[in-house]
Amino acid sequence: MPVHTRIATTTPPLWRLIPQLREQLGISQVTLARLLTETSGNPAVTRAEISRWERGKRIPGPYWRAWLSQVLDVSQDRLETAARSARNVRRSAGEPIPELAPYRRDG
């Protein structure tokens, strides 16, 4: 089995991990965006961006993953692995992400 497949099957992609951790904390996307803004001092992240991350439309970059680590109380290594997993799933499946197809407006 190729390494990228092994990573994708053993580590949830970031679009699964972020809502899982957020829901464990009992917070909404709006609250997560507010906490990221307060913690980072950067008002650039919004609920809409959180939604894009959770739908697999975008993968947060290293800057936001560092802040997500603090706010969601998860190691940066786990978020990095989940980001790699998300990229590998995208590469192997092509766009759009098949498991997200039911949520697409045109799918």
TrEMBL record:
<feature type="domain" description="HTH cro/C1-type">
    <location>
        <begin position="18"/>
        <end position="79"/>
    </location>
</feature>
<dbReference type="GO" id="GO:0003677">
    <property type="term" value="F:DNA binding"/>
</dbReference>
<dbReference type="Pfam" id="PF01381">
    <property type="entry name" value="HTH_3"/>
</dbReference>
<protein>
    <recommendedName>
        <fullName>HTH cro/C1-type domain-containing protein</fullName>
    </recommendedName>
</protein>
<dbReference type="InterPro" id="IPR001387">
    <property type="entry name" value="Cro/C1-type_HTH"/>
</dbReference>
<dbReference type="InterPro" id="IPR010982">
    <property type="entry name" value="Lambda_DNA-bd_dom_sf"/>
</dbReference>
<feature type="region of interest" description="Disordered">
    <location>
        <begin position="85"/>
        <end position="107"/>
    </location>
</feature>
